Amino acid sequence: MFRKSGKPPPAAATQEEGRxxxxxxxxxxxxxxxPTLCAHLQDKMSFQxxxxxxxxxxxxxxxxxxxxVKAATGTGKTLAYLAxxxxxxxxxxxxxDRTHGTFALVLVPTRELCLQVYGIAQQLVHRFxxxxxxxVMGGENRAKEKARLRKGISILIATPGRxxxxxxxxxxxxxxxxxxxxxxxxxxxxELGFGKAVEDILEHLGSRNGVPSQNKNIGEQIRRQNLxxxxxxxxxxxxxxxxxxxxPVMIGLDDQKKPxxxxxxxxxxxxxxxxxxxxxxxxKKQNGLVEHAVxxxxxxxxxxxxxxxxxxxxxxxxxxxxLKSLFERQVSQKVVVFLSTCDSVDFHHTVLSQLExxxxxxxxxxxxxxxxxxxxxxxxxxxxxDDRKKSFLGFGSEKSAILVSTDIAARGLDFPKVKYIIQYxxxxxxxxxxxxVGRTARIGEKGEALLFLQPIELxxxxxxxxxGVSLTEYPFQKVLDSFPxxxxxxxxxxxxxxxxxxxxxxxxxxxxxxxxxxxxxxKLARDAFCSWVRAYTAHxxxxxxxxxxxxxxxxxxxxxxxxxxxxxxxxxxxxxQLKKRKKEQKRERPAKRRKxxxxx
Length: 600
Ligand SMILES: Nc1ncnc2c1ncn2[C@@H]1O[C@H](COP(=O)(O)OP(=O)(O)OP(=O)(O)O)[C@@H](O)[C@H]1O
Prior knowledge:
Elements: H1 15-22, H2 35-43, H3 52-63, E1 67-70, H4 77-91, E2 104-107, H5 111-124, E3 133-136, H6 142-151, E4 155-158, H7 160-169, E5 180-183, H8 186-191, H9 195-204, E6 225-230, H10 235-244, E7 249-251, H11 276-293, E8 303-309, H12 315-329, E9 334-338, H13 342-354, E10 356-358, E11 368-370, E12 375-379, H14 385-397, E13 401-405, E14 420-423, H15 430-437, E15 447-453, H16 460-466, E16 472-473, H17 476-481, H18 502-517, H19 519-537, H20 554-559, H21 572-588
Parallel strand pairs: 1-6, 1-7, 2-4, 2-5, 3-4, 5-6, 8-15, 8-16, 9-13, 9-14, 12-13, 14-15
Antiparallel strand pairs: 10-11
Helix pairs in contact: 3-4, 4-5, 7-9, 12-18, 13-19, 18-19, 19-21
The structure holds adenosine-5'-triphosphate.
């Protein structure tokens, strides 16, 4: 695939180039942070130098100005706001005490990210024991959270829904000293539908621009500093920035326009001394920049991005083959596989962790062993909270493992040493693509990403290109030919279609046998099939024209779930949706009528 300019996509940068581009040529101490904190960052957390984004953001955060940061995934945004907050809190006179309640509030989109940010906050306050970090989030015990809030939490990390709940119902929650509100992964918070909760939170805290607070718990003299961080920008983030930030300093929005030093694109006189007209002018400029940045996604330079074109029926066999080849190439690997639904995660987790197979001749059943020998974890929003925590912590601490997940793992999670991201089901918006691939190639490390596409979906590549994301084709045939069939490596043979390749055919037979063997597995496969089709019909906007359910062969989709027959169990709501979609399409293009694949 070539970019719009007609030039081939630029080669990914080497690891050294990636690191050079990522890190600033200064020390943490140069940014104004306390020597004890700097020593801790270096000695205990092994952070020798700040990343560029940290070098730009930390002085601004220390200066007390509102700030909007847009930076590629895995560039160290968390430290960019937590380090200055810890610095300013440790200096505070009188010393911060638990009875003073919460000084800093960090809003995050998911429970896992909540735990992750809490972990980093804990490390940062190690030498300042009087600063207490804590978290509140969905799925946890409310009464225990209330007790912790009553005792006092200086830096509170929270998911929006649960925080709003406590703001409304926990009388002992003291936030009259609140100085910072941070929106980490602001785009994800909003994409997950927390927009209304966030607005209510801002109103409750008296931090919504133009809306005076009715809340008597808010200290009148407290100077608020709001910080918004995001890997991608869009209309919703733009709106949140407008209602929550006052004359923010922009960081990472436009490299050309980025000034040196304190990165203040609005000049130095951007305080409340400005007239209304001047403020309007600034806002216009700010919004212009935000809009300008919509199409320009930042991805780590050293990330290798590829796609593999796979016919629908062979998708699962190809996924298994790619995974096997990755682990044969390097035994110690960490891979994340993204899927569209919770049911699909459960099914694929079962297949990937339990499928057995005989590597010798087909009838040699005694020699059966696991097709993939590494540990496989799963993560999705319908899991029990305890299982979710176990998966998150378990995958994080393994050296070699696969994580099968919905987009819940796409938001800001920092699993160490993930080398490979597989998007088995396409993401929706291009921004989702950016978040998913951002789980690898972090902090200058190498990383690869592979997107599965059916031949009918290849236009998605054009959509990604509109956002400056270019992918090259993955040489799957080569990988395929390296596998033995019936114990023998194939001779160089004529090109045959993927579905007819002996390795794929034999793997598909094993899969179908595996699924058919147990009723429970069959049910998992059927449920996964139904939810997958539902998710496919739910693509929005322009993507509806690419991911068209009417172009799918549902029998082939069933095959990709190891089912010999297409389940007739597709739920009523799905049927209604399908009819609605058909009607819509008829209305849009009456001339181009196509038949939906018939159900058996
Ligand atoms: N200055 C530094 N030197 C070395 N490693 C760092 C530095 N700052 C952060 N890191 C590490 O880099 C990784 C990525 O950091 P972080 O999760 O904050 O990135 P991010 O920009 O928030 O990514 P995302 O947008 O995906 O959430 C973490 O493992 C963190 O410990």
